[in-house]
Automatic annotation (TrEMBL), chain A:
One of its GO terms (cellular component) is proteasome complex. Keywords: Cytoplasm, Proteasome, Signal. It comes from the Eukaryota. Residues 383-398 have a biased composition (Acidic residues). The keyword Ligase does not apply. Residues 236-313, 374-433 are annotated as: Disordered. This is Proteasome endopeptidase complex. InterPro entries: Ntn_hydrolases_N, Proteasome_suB-type. PANTHER family: METALLOPROTEASE TLDD, PROTEASOME SUBUNIT BETA TYPE-1. Residues 239-254, 298-312 have a biased composition (Low complexity). Its main location: nucleus. The keyword DNA damage does not apply. It comes from Stephanodiscus triporus. Residues 1-21 form the signal peptide.
From TrEMBL, chain B:
Keywords: Cytoplasm, Nucleus, Proteasome. The keyword Cytoplasm applies. InterPro entries: Ntn_hydrolases_N (IPR029055), Proteasome_beta4 (IPR016295), Proteasome_bsu_CS (IPR016050), Proteasome_sua/b (IPR001353), Proteasome_suB-type (IPR023333). Transmembrane segments: none annotated. This is Proteasome subunit beta. It is found in: Cytoplasm; Nucleus. The lineage of its organism: Eukaryota, Sar, Stramenopiles, Ochrophyta, Bacillariophyta. SUPFAM superfamilies: N-terminal nucleophile aminohydrolases (Ntn hydrolases). GO terms for cellular component: cytoplasm; nucleus; proteasome core complex, beta-subunit complex. The keyword Transferase does not apply. Its main location: cytoplasm. Non-catalytic component of the proteasome.
């Protein structure tokens, strides 16, 4: 179910609402597409949102090189996650009080298109969520499906926000928010507790990303982008974040696979390669699948194989009780690699798309385990430009997952981007001198 | 505080679907289709200690330079300044609305003392204006302006910070802020110059000289501009100050203006 349906051209929409007295010469156009390209990536133990910061005037003019307000925003205004510059509707006291009781992983939304609509959408979604959250008292969270008190962290938080966004967008079906969105957050992992954990999933959380069109049709994906330049960026991301197709398998481990620091392969990687080998040689799917583990094992497989590898008869109910999607919903690489790939992909798109450029802001939400396993997490603005502070001090106060927000702000004009550690180009032969 | 800038009774109700829009139009309530009396660029720039706006005092009636002493930079309260290009009557309407709100705030203040200042700061005005403009565009009856809002940010307790604020709202509700801003023609001609020369610690004299230069250049190249200009500033201690209009000196003997570019005896370039 790809969101391939395009909205009719702006002129058609505009004339639909012009009064009969206006001539065709100049009618007011309520929309102005002023740029923006947003991306969301869901990893095994992180979720990521990226955006460029350029705001155009719809044509060749640049209105702002530093526009982030309606472009990346936190769905819940008082989650302690202050992404945009003027989140001044938060009373600090209230934010801290909320953090003491609940620690939801922040859900970040990226929206691009008509920035007036994106800003309005931001306010509308926050209004809806605030109303929802304040209607359920802080002491009894049983009725509040957004806040979840389990030590494992947020439950259906991102899924609820994703669904809400659809409802809000479709509610304006007759006069759409010209806002193409992506949503990223942490979700309860659908893997079982058995094998298939690899480097992530210890806390039972994995990344979730969704992509929308302007009237609310959405789907969960591993990596997707939206906005101007989407056609340029999506193929790069598809390729960079996918395991290789069969012809390239030949004994080599797939790029973007997680590796331990000493270079040995992780369990996940070995089992993936075994699966590739099995699938390539036409072995029965069940031989690779362990007898024990049941639904959990299928879930693990489903997140790393393509649709073609999971025949319909093999799809079973996942841990969460719903059918597990045969489409990849997480990527395998660590978040640093994802950040590198995205920064360079944006640089490529900025070469050819005039609405994309200036700076890229990448926000990464890590699960607690991912943060701890690193040994170091840079918290706070990468360049010191953003004065948002994450709840880094609260990590010890709560039993729940306190996701860390890291900001990486590589500038597109960087002439020497860092090399990609675990990513190998498919056609390295053609690049060698 | 009410979003009372409605165009009429019927149109002020909920979102009008197309058929109703036509019906309303037939009854005589009109939607804005094009601006009639227009002002051109507004320039804005932060500097050390404040924010400065600049604009000329011309309001054009199509190609007629009709009103040569119009005020397009207006103070809203003691710490907020707006300037707008576009339809002049809509600017007057916006000014009435914002000043009405400011008066309301003053009359309903908890205290009569100036220290307990509960006036809206520039950020609030900007945010509110965004909502007003967006609502009007939703009704397909926009206020046809680009409004620049200048002032300072506000602490949660209502006191003014020393962090300057400069933002703009356009007629469909696009709102953004920056260190230097220009609307209309100024975005093409003046903004690159301002961005080149801008430094956060510019002195007031420097900022003013730069803005005057830009207004002069706009007069050279914008058909709807005038060399009679106004400068306004907001400072931490001085509040809002709007200058009286004055003329800029212009120089027309540039070689680039005088010499023919094309070799056909006519002006082939610009």
């Amino acid at each position: 179910m790809r969101s391939a349906w395009l909205l009719p051209p702006l002129t058609l929409l505009a004339t639909a609402w012009s009064s009969s007295s206006s001539s065709s010469s100049s009618s007011f156009d309520p929309y102005l597409l002023d740029g923006g390209l947003v991306t969301a990536v869901a990893g095994r133990d992180y979720a990521l949102i990226a955006s460029d910061t350029r705001l155009t005037d719809g044509g060749y003019g640049i209105r702002s090189r530093d526009h982030l307000g309606g472009r990346i925003w936190s769905a819940v205004s008082s989650s302690g996650c202050i992404v945009d510059g003027y989140d001044d509707d938060d009373d600090n006291e209230r934010a801290i009080a909320r953090r003491r009781d609940f620690v939801p992983p922040p859900v970040l939304v990226g929206s691009a298109g008509c920035s007036a609509d994106c800003e309005s959408l931001r306010r509308r979604v926050r209004l809806e969520l605030d109303a929802l959250l304040s209607s359920s008292s802080t002491s009894s969270s049983s009725s509040s499906y957004y806040y979840n008190r389990h030590p494992g962290g947020g439950g259906g938080g991102v899924r609820s926000v994703a669904n809400l966004l659809q409802q809000v967008l479709y509610g304006r079906r007759s006069f759409p928010y010209y806002s193409f969105c992506v949503v990223a957050g942490l979700d309860r992992a659908r893997r079982g507790l058995g094998r298939g954990r690899g480097r992530g999933g210890g806390g039972g959380e994995e990344g979730a990303a969704y992509v929308y069109d302007a009237i609310g049709s959405y789907e969960r994906v591993a990596v997707a982008c939206a906005g101007t330049g989407r056609e340029l960026l999506q193929p790069i991301l598809d390729r960079s974040f996918s395991p290789p197709s069969r012809p390239f398998r030949g004994g080599r481990s797939p790029p973007n696979s997680p590796r331990r620091r000493d270079g040995t392969k992780t369990t996940t990687q070995e089992e993936e390669e075994a699966a590739e080998a099995a699938a390539a040689t036409g072995d029965d799917f069940d031989e690779v699948d362990d007898v024990g583990g049941g639904g959990g094992r299928v879930s693990a497989r489903a997140t790393t194989t393509t649709t073609a590898d999971v025949p319909a008869s093999r799809q079973r109910a996942g841990v969460a009780g719903g059918l597990v999607s045969p489409v990849r919903t997480t990527v395998d690489c660590p978040w640093e690699d994802a950040v590198n790939v995205i920064a360079r992909a944006y640089a490529s798109v900025a070469e050819r798309e005039i609405s994309v450029g200036d700076e890229v802001v990448i926000c990464v939400i890590l699960t607690n385990d991912a943060a701890r396993s690193k040994g170091r997490v840079s918290v706070g603005g990468g360049d010191g430009d953003e004065d948002e502070d994450e709840d880094d001090d609260d990590d010890d106060d709560f039993g729940g997952a306190v996701p860390k927000l890291t900001f990486a702000r590589p500038t597109i004009a960087d002439p020497d981007p860092p090399p990609l550690p675990n990513v190998r180009p498919y056609c390295n032969k053609s690049h060698d001198a | 505080m009410s979003l009372s800038l409605q165009s009429g009774g019927a149109a002020s109700r909920a979102l009008a679907p197309p058929s109703t829009a036509r019906a309303i139009a037939d009854q005589g309530n009109q939607m804005t289709t094009r601006p009639i009396t227009t002002g051109t660029s507004v320039l804005g720039m932060k500097y050390r200690g404040g924010v400065m706006l600049a604009a000329d005092t011309l309001v054009s009636y199509g190609s007629l330079a009709k009103y040569k002493n119009a005020r397009r930079l207006l103070s809203i309260n003691s710490r907020t300044l707006i300037g707008a290009g576009g339809e002049y009557s809509d600017l007057q309407s916006i000014a009435d609305l914002l000043r009405g709100n400011a008066l309301n705030d003053r009359c309903t203040a908890d205290s009569l003392y100036e220290e307990d200042n509960n006036e809206e700061c520039a950020g609030e005005v900007w945010s509110y204006l965004r909502a007003v403009m967006y609502q009007r565009r939703n009704r397909m009856n926009p206020l046809w302006n680009d409004v620049v809002v200048a002032g300072f940010r506000q602490n949660p307790d209502g006191t003014t910070t020393d962090s300057p604020f400069l933002g703009v709202v356009d007629k469909i509700g696009t709102a953004y802020e920056d260190d230097v801003l220009a609307t209309g023609f100024g975005a093409y001609i003046a903004l690159p110059l301002m961005r080149e020369k801008y430094r956060p610690d510019m002195e007031e004299g420097e900022a003013r000289a730069l803005l005057e230069d830009c207004l002069r250049i706009l007069f050279y190249r914008d058909c709807r501009a005038l060399n009679r200009v106004q400068i306004a500033k907001v400072t931490m201690d001085g509040g809002v100050l709007v200058s009286e209009p004055y003329e800029l000196d212009t120089y027309w003997d540039f070689k680039g203006f005088v010499t023919n570019k094309g070799e056909m005896g006519t002006d082939g370039g610009w």
